[in-house]
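Run log, item B.
One chain of 331 residues. Sequence copied directly from the ordering sheet:
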Amino acid sequence: MHDEKVVTTFFLITYNQEKYIREAIKGAFSQTYSPLEIVISDDCSTDGTFRIIEEMCEKYDGQHKIVVNQNRYNLGLIGHINRITELSSGELIIYAAGDDISLPHRTAKLVERYLATDRKASLLHSSVYLIDIAGNRVGTRHPPVISHGINGMSLEDMALSGALIIGATSAFTRKIEETFGPITYSKCVEDLVMGFRSALTGSLEYIPEPLILYRHDSGITSRVDSRSQTYKEYIKSKIRGEEGYLAVLAQRIDDLKTIGEGDLIPLIKRKRTEVLLKRTLWTRKYSFIKLVSYSYKRCLFGVFVRLLLLEKKKRILFYVKKLMHTSRVNS
């Protein structure tokens, strides 16, 4: 069974990543599995990314089939991801990001595990080696769906979760798009959609070893940026995150309807209402009385009180940290 060949596409997606794209392409070219189609698709970058792609592909003389695509205009991440199946010929499609580095045996390991499931897995994923901006290994990360516990997450947990797989490690079959169609909501986080869609089919498969070097921009710069944030800027960033999560929950509701599974929909709808309530509290666009009435009518008064206290606590802690930081800087 393990000598069987699978028509496979290694799909490298890029946008404005001229600093890292060479390493990402070298990782793609280094794949030991054959036959392999490598598609490098650029979302109309405005820097030198596509020039580097053309240059490296023109010089490549290896065994893999190389396909280069540049979108006519910028589609955004979700729009670009929705083109992956269209641009690929493989039964199994391995996703790669333009700032990460795939280890040479990545494709071979994914195909081996796919065949071990008798081609039933619709999505496979792995853990990663974390690297800093200089490319140095700084640790290992496991996906939340595995780290959650010895038996992973239940389907109910996954329906509400804001963290499932590490999207940059995923490989998926055409079955997912054939079943659910393209991702509808442009603000979605793609791995939250793909992970849940695969779980709905009962075929989410994990490989317990790092198969990519995953860019991890941590350190002094990010800490300084967060310390210089105003509370208003902090709230804006949190709201952007919640908008992505709300889009994911809406997509999950649509996907459940597509396959005729409605049991989880009330649970997700309630979660969306809670998130909308939290976002409204943060923005302070409505009067306190209206929010109390809204939450009471929807049997969410306890949730409202908890969110209100959490918001007050966050606000106080934020200003205390700012004062401490200012004091240290001035001393």
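Observations after the first pass:
- The longest strand covers residues 204-215.
- Residues 220 and 226 are 10 Å apart (CA to CA).
Flagged for discussion on Thursday.
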